[in-house]
Amino acid sequence: MNRRILLKLMIPLTIIVLWEALATSIHNQFILPDIQSVLMVLLSPGTDIMGSGSLIENALMSLQRVGLGFLVATCLAVPLGVAMGRLEPLKAALDGMVSALRPVPPLAWVPLALAWLKIGLASIVFIIALGAFFPVLLNTMQGVRGVKKNWIEAITMMGAKEHDLMIRVILPAAAPEIWTGMRIGFGIAWMCVVAAEMLPGTNTGLGYLIMYAYSWGQVQVVIAGMIAIGIIGIGIDRFFVTVERRWLSWRGL
Amino acid sequence: MALLERSVMMMLQLKDVSKEFCSGKSRVKTLQDVNFEVNDGEIVAILGPSGCGKTTLLRIIAGLEQPSSGDVLLDGKRVEQPSPQFGMVFQEHALLPWLSVHRNVSIGLEMRGIPREEMRRSAMQYLSMVGLQESSERYPHELSGGMRQRVAVARALTLEPKLLLMDEPFSALDFQTRRQIQQDILQVQEKTGKAIIVVTHSIEEAIYLADRLVLLSSRPGMVREVLKIDLDRPRDRASPRFLKSLDYVLNCLNTSITTECGKAV
C-alpha cells in the first residue's frame, strides 16, 4: 500500500523539484514562475484576479456552460442513438454522415458558430454540444445494438410492447455504455469549453482567465488556471466512474 | 360445460410446417412438412442431430419465427406472434442481470400492472416451486448455472402459459446439476400440469423426461418417427427397458433417412 502511494507520488514530486530548480535558474516570472506564486493563486481561489473575477467564479462559469452544452448534446444524442441502434435503415442512412462529421474538431466549427449564433453563450454551447455529441451518440448506438437478443425475446414472449422493451430491457441494458459515452463526452466538452472561452468576445470562464492573465504577463495565474482545469476534470471523471461502479456494474459480472 | 372441456383439452398442432432460409443466392430448407401434436399435460421431447432445425422448430412454435409454409395451431388458433400462452426457457438463461431474482420472475406480471403484493406472492410461489425462495433478493450473477435455469423456469411459469417451451435448457449444466434439474422439471410438471416441449440433443434426457419423443432427421428436418415412452415414473435410467429405448432411439437416429426404423419399443 505504502509502496503504491510512493509510486504515484514519484512523478509529481520529481516534476515539482525540477520545476523549482528550473524556475530558480531561469529566474524569470514571465517564462516560468516559481511554485509558491502558483500555489498562492490556487490556495486563495476566492480572491479576485485583476478585476476578472476569482478562480472559483470563473470555474463555476465554465462548468455552467459545459453543463448546458452537455445537456443539449445528451438530450439529442441519446434518443438519436437509441433510434439508430434499433432501426437498421436509419443507421444505414445516417452512418456516412456521422463518420464524416465526427473527425471534424469542434473548434473547427467556431467560424460557423460565430456566423450563425453570434458571439456569446449560444455559440459556446454549440461548440461544447458538438464535442460531447458524438461519443454519446456512438456509445448509445453500440449499447443498444449490443442488447442480447435473448433478453428481448424473453420479454417479448411475455407480451411486451415496444415501449415495455424500451423501458425494461433496452435502456437498462444499454445504460452502462450510454454512461461511458457520457463520461467521454463530458471530458471532451470540458476541453472544448476552455478552448471556446479563449475566443474573442468572452469575458468570463477559466479559458478567458488564462488568456487574460497571459496578456498581462501573469504566468502564475495561467499555470494555476491549467491546474484548476485538470483538477476539475479529474473530479468530474471520478463522479462518472463512481456512479458506474455503484449502479451500472452488472456489466462486468 | 363446453368452455370447461376446451380449457382442459389444450392441444398444439403442427401442420406441414416447413422453413426455408436464404443463404446467399441459394435457399436452404431446414424443416420440411413437420406434423405432430402435443396434448394437455404432456411432455414431448424434440430430438435430432445437430443442425436438424430443432431450435428453429421450437422458435416457430413460440411465434418468434414464421414458418415458410404450414401452420402452428394452439387450440385451433394460428400462432402468429410471440404470446404469453407460451412460457419460454432459453438455452442460456436470458435473465436480466440488473434485476434481482424476484424482479426477474415477476417482470411479466409487472408489465400487466398486477399490484405489488400479488406480484410478490405469485413470484414467491413459483420460486418456491423450483426451490429458490431463499434466493429471491440475489442477482443472477450470484447464482450457479442450475439455479439460473430454475429461475428462468419460474419466470416462464408466472404468466401461467398453456405450454412450457424449453430450448436445450440444461445443455450448459454439469452432469449432477442436470440430473437434479430434470427431476425438478418433472415435479413442476406434476404440480402445474403444464404441457412441456423440450428440445434436446441428449437421448437419455429425452427418454427420462418425455411421454413422447419426436425424432427429426438431419437437414432438412423431417419427423422420422414419434415414439411413445411407456415407462413408469420415476424412471430408472439403468433399467433394461430404459436402456432398450435408448438403444432403439440411438439406432433410429443413426440409420439413414431412407431406411425405416423398426416399430415396437
Provide a quick synopsis of the model.
Chain A is mainly alpha-helical. Helix content of chain A is 77%, strand content 0%.
Describe this structure in words.
Chain A is mostly helical and 253 residues long. Chain A has one domain (59-247): Orthogonal Bundle (MetI-like fold). In chain A, 77% of the residues lie in helices and 0% in strands. Chain A is built from 10 helices and no strands. Chain A has helices spanning 2-26, 35-43, 55-86, 88-101, 110-117, 121-145, 149-157, 162-196, 206-215, 219-247. In chain A, α3 (55-86) runs antiparallel to α8 (162-196) and α5 (110-117) packs across α6. The longest helix of chain A has 35 residues, at 162-196. Chain B has 265 residues and is of the alpha/beta class. Chain B folds into 2 domains: 1-85 and 168-265, P-loop containing nucleotide triphosphate hydrolases (Rossmann fold); 94-160, no CATH class. In chain B, 36% of the residues lie in helices and 25% in strands. In chain B, strands 6-7-8-3-9-10 form a 6-stranded mixed β-sheet, with helices on both faces. Chain B has a 4-stranded antiparallel β-sheet with strand order 2-1-4-5, with helices on one face. Chain B is globular and about 50 Å long. The model of chain B is unreliable at 1-7 (pLDDT under 50). Chains A and B meet through α7 and α8 of A and β6 and α3 of B.
